[in-house]
Specification:
two-stranded parallel ribbon; 12 helices; 1% strand; coiled coil
């Protein structure tokens, strides 16, 4: 009978347990938030703002928890008042109506005891059937309709009230006459009929609610189906629109392609005509240029032949002059060798004279020299020198040879310059030959004189005293 309020109490207890667990974890949550606050202080301004918001939520949670505790206390107080009111309501329930015969049987202690359990059993059976009909169906349809749940709660409350009245009726009883008790029994029978009708209506209502739920689920399925069809229609419509736009674009591109194709063919014909004209003009220009080039080539060949003939004559003249210069160089080389030997003899003679002069410093040697000089002065020139004197003579000969070699090189250069000047006539009109001659003379004057000292150390060999060869004139 009291399964509905019991489930409500169980749900309330579960809710309270969940809230108590949450409230028990609030300190840990607060500590976690505090630790997270210090960790988030190093983040950006956005995260700092979030930390400030979370910090501001902590007092709000505390206030909500305090309000929850106050609400819980007030709820418990209201529950206590409700229990008191229910107790008072049960105590103020109507009494049990009894007839004279039932009172007589109660005094005898037989019939009333048998009748009361029977009636109470029937009432209990009716109450249990009503509870099952009013609880099972509403609970089955509680997810879809709140009205059936409210009706079930009302039926539960009435059943609980009737059971409480039947339990307390044994304590309060009224003895009525036969007519009054008959009317009471008729009223009770009518009440039972109305209860049965109400139970039938409740069952029909539950069936209708079940059917309503089925229809609602079917309606939702149909709505989903309609939505899916609508989505498919929209997708197909979008694809159709895209295809139509693509067709329009394709038609536009085709028209544009036809126009461009005509323009391209016309431009190609014009370009071919222009290419033909350009080719003809190029051939005419090339023919004119080739004629001019041929004439220029012929004139250049003529000039080259003339220059070749003149240069062949000059080359023959230069070769003759070169051979003459080589003969002169050979003569000069022989003369230089002879002069080198004669120079060495003169240097040795000078050294001997110096030694002889040193020996004459003493009076005795002077007297002996005066006595012997008149006999044969040529013997002094033939005397052999010591190694020391020969070494000194060689050192002096080195310096003298270098100076004489440079003088000889300058003389040879002067001869070359004189030959260049003689080759240029006073009536020369060719500026090119004049410039070439001047350039050669400038190069001869700017050229440094180099002496091969290793060749000057060996006086016994006939070696050239300068290493610069006389080159033939430039062509």
């Amino acid at each position: 009978m009291a399964s509905g309020p019991t489930e409500l109490l169980i749900d309330e207890e579960r809710f309270l347990l969940t809230v108590e667990v949450l409230l028990a974890n609030i300190p840990s949550l607060v500590s976690d938030l505090s630790s997270a606050k210090y960790a988030l202080l190093s983040f950006s301004d956005k995260f700092r703002n979030e930390v400030r918001q979370k910090s501001s939520l902590i007092p709000a949670v505390s206030d909500a928890y305090r309000e929850f505790l106050e609400t819980r206390g007030s709820l418990q107080e209201e529950q206590r008042k409700l229990n008191e009111l229910e107790t008072q309501l049960v105590r103020s329930s109507p009494p049990n109506f009894l007839s004279v015969e039932e009172v007589h049987f109660e005094d005898t202690g037989g019939a009333l005891l048998v009748d009361e359990p029977r009636r109470s059993d029937g009432a209990d059976a009716q109450e249990e059937s009503l509870i099952e009909e009013n609880l099972v169906k509403p609970h089955a349809a509680s997810a879809g309709s709140t009205v059936s749940t409210a009706e079930g709660l009302v039926n539960i409350y009435e059943t609980h009230k009737n059971s409480t009245l039947s339990e307390d009726a044994s304590q309060t009883a009224l003895v009525l006459s036969a007519d009054d008790i008959k009317r009471v029994r008729e009223s009770e029978s009518l009440l039972e009929e109305e209860r049965e009708k109400l139970a039938c209506l409740a069952r029909e209502t539950n069936v209708l609610e079940d059917q309503l739920e089925l229809d609602r689920s079917h309606c939702e399925e149909m709505s989903e189906h309609v939505h899916s069809i609508r989505r498919n229609y929209q997708a197909v419509l979008a694809e159709l629109t895209a295809v139509e736009s693509e067709r329009r674009q394709y038609a536009t591109l085709r028209e544009e392609w036809e126009g461009r194709k005509g323009i391209y063919s016309e431009a190609r014909r014009d370009m071919e005509e222009i290419f033909v004209l350009c080719r003809n003009e190029e051939l005419a220009i090339i023919s004119v240029v080739l004629e001019g080039v041929n004439e220029h080539v012929i004139s250049i060949e003529r000039e080259l032949n003339e220059k070749k003939r003149s240069q062949e004559v000059e080359l023959a003249v230069y070769q003759i002059a070169y051979k003459e210069q080589q003969a002169v160089v050979d003569e000069l080389r022989d003369a230089v060798n002879y002069l080198q030997r004669h120079q060495w003899e003169l240097e040795l003679m000078a050294k001997r004279q110096e030694i002889e002069k040193y020996k004459r410093k003493s009076i005795r040697r002077l007297l002996m020299a005066s006595l012997s000089a008149s006999l044969n002065t040529g013997e002094a020139l033939k005397q052999e020198l010591s190694e020391e004197y020969i070494k000194e003579a060689k050192e002096d000969h080195r310096a003298v040879s270098l100076v004489s070699a440079r003088i000889g090189a300058l003389e040879a250069r002067r001869g070359v310059l004189a030959a260049e000047l003689l080759r240029i006539s006073s009536t020369e009109k060719d500026t090119t030959r004049m410039n070439c001659a001047l350039r050669r003379m400038r190069e001869i004057l700017m050229d440094e004189i180099t002496i091969d000292e290793s060749m000057l150390q060996n006086e016994d060999e006939l070696t050239p005293w300068y290493n610069r060869e006389l080159l033939p004139p430039y062509s």
